[in-house]
Amino acid sequence: MNRSKLGQQLGCLFEVGFNIGLLSYIKQKKFKCNYGNLYEQDLEQINFAKIVRRLCDNLGIISPQDREIVKQWANFFMLKSCLAGLNFLAEYFAAIGWDKQRIRQRLEIVYFQSYLANDNTLNTYIKEENQVYQDWVSQFKNKTIDTQKYQQKGEFLKADTLIYLRYQHQVRIIAIDYSIFAIQSIKDLQDLNNIEVLRQILLSNISYLKSKSVFANLGLDSNSNSLLFSQSLSQYYKAFARKDKKTIKMIQAGSYAYSFWNWLQIQQQISEQDEVTFNIIGYSARSGCFPLS
Q1: Who has the most CB within 10 Å: 64, 98, 182, 192?
Q2: Through-space distance between the first and last CA atoms of the chain, rounded to whole angstroms
Q3: What region does 186 belong to: left with phi over 0, alpha with psi -120 to 50, or beta?
Q4: CA 214 – CA 236 distance, rounded (Å)
Q5: Can you tell me the distance from the alpha carbon of 18 to that of 81, in angstroms, rounded to the nearest whole number?
């Protein structure tokens, strides 16, 4: 069994599931959005059972027992990612104070970008790529896009998830890039119905989280009980490793946000009165998000 390939393809399922969670939250809260029924049409074409069969076939898995275990993991990743997407937006709006009813009524999802076809469905749902891009841009009335330019590496049409939010003159642009590598830490896919397997996965994730801080084993000896760092540095209290995969994903997301920002300016979608905030996120299936604002 090719675990590297398996992790990559489960990653596609995670991305789809996360975006389904985001879309579900938007629909539940009845936010005003410009994409209409675009994503409902895509979701109607996604057949999860067909995706699982394609996943097993791509990996050359014949054994019924192994195919059942892969199905368990596919279910696990889809459930985990969908709940993660749903909770992400709920926690995001709460954190920035946009969860109040009076704000929700005026909040607009100007643009939402998510790829729910082709590679992300293991090619069980095929949609012409240029049509995908044109459907996205149709969220802006009477706007066109140079797809050849903006589908290049680092340009915003390559973003996993891109959201443009507006509340009056406050604008927020969220760019998310996903990383799925937890599966690489498991020597063999194991039966998720086994409680001991679940316990080991949980312990492994906890250990991983504890090890990620650069200051995990740092001790400070000081005569003062007061804060050792200036207040201006308080928001940068958490250091990160430059070679960390989630950091790389965050950098990629930043590239997409910058590309999108440039296109918005060219299209005159941002006024001088607008206050724009970027939220750049590298999201790991193993340990959640690493945000930068």
Answers
A1: 182
A2: 40
A3: beta
A4: 13
A5: 4
Q: What pLDDT is stored for residue 188 in this prediction?
A: 55
Distance CA 205, CA 135 (A): 38
pLDDT at 246: 66
Place of tokens 């709006």: 93
| 106: CB partners within 8 A, 6+ apart | 167, 168
Residue 8 lies in a domain: yes
Q: Token pair of 144, please?
A: 């066109």
84, part of any domain: yes
What pLDDT, in 10s, does the model give residues 57-95? 988 888 888 888 888 888 988 998 999 999 999 999 999
Which range of residues forms the domain containing residue 86?
3-211+235-292
CB 287 within 8 A of CB 246: yes
Residue 151 within a domain: yes
Tell me the torsion sign for CA atoms 268, 271, 272, 275.
negative
User: How many separate domains does the chain show?
Assistant: 1
pLDDT < 70 stretches in the chain: 1-4, 180-188, 208-246, 286-293
Q: What is the pLDDT of residue 187?
A: 47
Q: How far is CA 71 from the centre of its chain?
A: 22
Closest CA to 165 of 66, 15, 22, 277: 277
Q: Are 178 and 256 in contact (CB under 8 A)?
A: no
